[in-house]
Design a protein that fits this description.
Strand 1 and strand 2 (about 115-120) form a beta hairpin. The chain contains 9 helices and 6 strands; from the N terminus they run H-H-E-E-H-E-H-H-E-H-E-H-E-H-H. The protein folds into 2 domains: about 1-75; about 75-150 and about 190-275, Muramoyl-pentapeptide Carboxypeptidase, domain 2 (2-Layer Sandwich). By secondary structure, it is of the alpha+beta class. The relative contact order is 0.11. The protein is elongated. The longest helix has about 70 residues, at about 1-75. The structure holds zinc ion. Zinc ion binds near residues 145 and 197.
């Protein structure tokens, strides 16, 4: 009997111990599994970051190589000009929702096209040549907007807000929604005199459909060789603050335009590469 009781007690203890061990084992397994899942997530995150970092490094390397090539081919002239020009009024001046125009900025302007359009004297000839070549290629480009004064920009912005309110946009949201397509006065590239909106005569809507026109196809492929870039490419709103605008072209000079076109950058990214903003 005593032996039996002892055995039963031993058995019970053994079972309890086994239960504890099993519980521990389950806990440890769960912990290991959780850790693995966490580790896997961390690895994915690292891999993603790595890819982004690699991409950034590749872009920087490509840009630096391009800078060397341009410097060699131009005897350092273009490079020197470009960096000497890092000042107010520079053709590479970054103007966006976070970088307003310098106080009292007034470019030297000259007439382009018809209907009293004006652009900065440093890009007017390149712009006219670009449009002439675009026409010669069989397209029908029409210049619809060029230099704007602060007052003109204010009027456009106010009108945009009014249209949004009329369409039922809540008053609290109207200014920020408006700013995505009509820049807040003081932050528009049109006030620089270095930007122009060009549309196709056969398709006059300012929407994404513009990108399919012959004019935009030609301009998007060739504008860089005149020193212009498509300033607000598709999918870059987070960087530029402005909606996709397959009609707004900005002059930045031949070297920067060629590099931005080839490397697939925005002016914001290019400026960052050059160590600005
Ligand atoms: Zn524009």
């Amino acid at each position: 009997m005593v032996v039996k009781t002892k055995n039963r007690l031993g058995f019970s203890l053994l079972m309890a111990l086994a239960g504890i061990l099993l519980g521990l084992l389950i806990q440890v397994s769960l912990a290991v599994w959780t850790e693995s899942a966490g580790q896997a997530a961390a690895r994915r995150e690292l891999a993603l970051l790595g890819r982004r970092a690699e991409e950034a490094l590749r872009t920087r390397a490509a840009w630096e190589e391009s800078e060397r090539r341009w410097a060699a081919e131009s005897g350092g002239q273009i490079l020197a000009d470009k960096f000497a020009a890092v000042r107010e009024g520079d053709i590479l001046l970054l103007v966006n929702p976070w970088n307003p125009l310098p106080e009292g900025y007034v470019p030297e302007l000259t007439e382009v096209g018809t209907e009293g359009h004006r652009l900065d004297v440093r890009c007017a000839a390149a712009f006219e040549q670009m449009l002439a070549d675009c026409k010669a290629a069989g397209c029908r480009p029409v210049l619809i907007s060029s230099y704007r004064t602060q007052e003109m920009q204010q009027e456009l912005y106010d009108n945009k807000i009014k249209r949004l309110l009329d369409a039922g946009t809540p008053a609290a949201e109207a200014p920020s929604v408006a700013a995505m397509s009509v820049a807040v006065p003081g932050t528009s590239e049109h006030q620089l005199g270095l930007a122009a909106d060009v549309i196709d005569e056969n398709y006059t809507n300012l929407d994404q459909g513009q990108e399919r026109t012959a004019t935009q196809q030609w301009l998007m492929a060739n504008c860089w060789s005149y020193g212009f870039i498509l300033r607000y490419p598709n999918g870059t709103t987070d960087l530029t603050g402005i909606i996709y605008e397959p009609w707004h072209y900005r002059y930045i000079g031949l070297q920067a335009a060629e590099e931005i076109h080839r490397l697939g950058l925005t002016l914001e990214e290019y400026t960052a590469l050059r160590g600005g903003h």
